[in-house]
Amino acid sequence: MRAKGVLAAEIDLVVPFFDVDSLEVVWHGHYVKYLEVARCALLDDIGHNYVRMRETGFAWPVIDLQLRYARAARFGQPLRVSAELVEWENRLKIHYTVSDATTGERLTRASTIQVAVRLADGEMQLVSPQVFIDDVTRRLATATEDRR
Asked: Which top CATH class is 7-143?
């Protein structure tokens, strides 16, 4: 069973013409771009986007990407892409769902794993930097307050 995320963000998009092949089906590689847009929305919500990562001295390269296609997305189709934070203390693991925005039908599931790499020397970190953990903890606290 797939783990439920503690924080989530969603983005909506309409499949553009330049993302499809001659059969008007989204080329499989473009799904990665859709995941990135949703991941950026999640990181913005956490308060730890790519600008903040650089400011804190760390890059977070994707070291693992898994995609499972259930149904093809097509030209002009409205999509909703959700990104859920699943792990953050030792690595950044995010689960994604790509769905038809109108019907809710799931088209694709995915996950990414990212690890912190210190920009100064390129050394991979075995635990997440405290500044990132603090940003997640702060956002979790506000999410709990929002639910009250």
From this structure: alpha beta
